[in-house]
Amino acid sequence: MSDPAPSPDLWPAPRPHDPVDRVVSLPGSKSLTNRALLLAAIADGPSVVRRPLRSRDTLLMAAALSTLGTGLEDRDGDWAVTPGSWDRDGDVDCGLAGTVMRFVPPVAGLASGTVHFDGDPHMRQRPVGQMLAALSALGIRIEDGGRGALPFAVHGSGSVPGGTVTIDASASSQFVSALLLAGARYDLGVDVRHIGKPVPSLPHIEMTVQMLRQHGVEVDDSDANRWAVAPGAVAAIDCDIEPDLSNAAPFLALGAVTGGRVTVADWPTSTTQPGDELRQVLALMGCEVTLDAAGLTVVGPERLSGVDLDLHDVGELTPAIAALCALADSPSHLRGVAHIRGHETDRLTALATELGRLGADVTEREDGLSIRPAPLHGGTFRTYADHRMAHAGVILGLAVDDVLVEDIATTAKTFPDFAGAWTLAVHGVHA
Ligand SMILES: O=C(O)C1=C[C@@H](OP(=O)(O)O)[C@@H](O)[C@H](O)C1
Ligand SMILES: C=C(OP(=O)(O)O)C(=O)O
User: Fold this and answer.
1) Quick check: helix, strand or coil at residue 312?
2) Where 3-phosphoshikimate is bound, by residue (predicted)?
3) Shortest-distance atom of ligand 1 to CA 207
4) What's the mean per-residue pLDDT of the chain?
């Protein structure tokens, strides 16, 4: 990993002096919001997305859909979405949002116009080539200069033939979700077959399938590694967005690390969000975990235990879990997450480097990390424009003096004013 000069923008991570006792309410889920917006935009009538997340990733999705010709209106924080005629050329900024770079091109094929896609510098490194090849096979004209990466253009012709397509989605589940989300609007629907190493983040594909069914779309997912979406209308439905359970990780860690108690309100009793897995992970680390009408409550133990976990299905939780492991009093092994090298940054190298910089004893493996107990010390924790690296940094700051988290504002990707919410949660008062 390159070792850039530390940014002057260093945020002293707040450290509580006593075990905390807090109830927190969190913003909506990025994954649910961006799916809901996209499905609303290709639906057969207007609808409302209630309690959506408004953060960089979802504002980029809203801007992309509006560029195509969709009407989006803020109604007291809700998003009223009116499908429009997609009859123009446009430019889409993907920022660093995987969901924008992967979910929008398959629907841009339905537009009558040329849509250019680009994003943040690092976005040009994130995988998308397999999906662009699949879109070409389904009848969409793509111009990517043979790079298989951003920047690229989608030449929409107003309709997409669709049909059967084979794809290696081992780099990202979002390739599959992207094809399924658009598929009902293709002339033949879409029948996606995965070949290659196992697809990561399967709960996110289940999320896609469940939301499509809620919108009246017929999906056959009865065979492993195959998903078929029948052609037809996408029914307009109003929906409520659950809190973001992956972004709950640092807040639950606050209870876990301080031996205190944190309740995250409105935790759903049933969900496809991978963050729900935190209930099991924190229990394995020694926390008392209760889900009831008040929400999800975590009471931390005197000392956290290390864990041996395959995180292939829930890779986006790795940074927060790795930080907790660095504070545990026995060794941990986190496995099955080679694909997170293609996330906002190479998260395995970034975590090994930054946890190590503060004294942690970390071995980077091809598909994970081994972390052994070691005394930690303060210092700069670099974040590489990755919101979840910032979450890892603030978790360490709960137990270690003088942790300086670089570019805390990078959390705006999925959480508005994270620094304010975190300070309030840690100290009980605003900064
Ligand atoms: O579909 C989604 O909303 C997501 C799928 C996952 O992507 P990968 O399969 O690329 O890990 C996850 O890590 C990402 O944060 C959100
Ligand atoms: C991998 C992530 O994001 P993206 O949707 O950009 O892939 C993430 O939020 O952890």
Assistant:
1) helix
2) 30-31, 35, 172-174, 201, 316, 343
3) 1
4) 97
Q: What one-character DSSP code corresponds to residue 77? A: T
Ligand nearest to the CA of 200: 1
Distance CA 194, CA 330 (A): 38
**Ligand 1 mean position, distance from CA 120 (Å):** 18
**Assigned token pair, 13:** 């991570």
Report H helices in 138-217. 174-183, 202-214
Residue-wise pLDDT tens digits, 347-390? 999 999 999 999 999 999 999 999 999 999 999 999 999 999 99
Residue 249: its pLDDT value, please? 98
* DSSP letter for each residue of 391-424: HHHHHHHTTSTTEEEETGGGGGGT-TTHHHHHHH
Does 99 sit in the ligand 1 pocket, CB within 6 Å? Answer: yes
> What is the longest distance spanned by two Cα atoms in the chain?
62
Q: 27 and 243 in contact (C-beta within 8 Å)?
A: yes
pTM score, two decimals?
Answer: 0.97
Tell me which amino acid residue 169 is: A
Beta-sheet strands, E only, within 241-375: 261-264, 288-292, 295-299, 308-310, 332-335, 361-365, 368-372
Which residues have CB under 8 Å from 293's CB, separation 6+?
A: none
- Closest listed ligand to the CA of 96: 2
In degrees rounded to 5, what are phi and psi of residue 11?
-110, 120
Candidate list 316, 344, 354, 406, residue with the active-site label: 316
Q: Is 316 a catalytic residue?
A: yes
Q: Six-digit token pair at 125? A: 């490194």
Amino acid letter at 336? G
Ligand 1 atom closest to residue 205's alpha carbon, by position in its atom list:
1
Q: Is 316 in the pocket of ligand 1 (CB under 6 A)?
A: yes
The structural domains of the chain, ordered by start, are: 10-27+242-427 (3.65.10.10), 30-228 (3.65.10.10)
Q: Within 10 Å of residue 365's Cβ, how many Cβ atoms? A: 15
Length reported for the chain:
431
What number is the ipTM of this complex?
0.99
Cα distances (angstroms) measured from residue 350 to each of 98, 125, 388, 395? 19, 15, 11, 15
Residues 98-112: pLDDT tens digits?
999 999 999 999 999
Handedness of CA 135, 140, 145, 146 (dihedral sign): positive
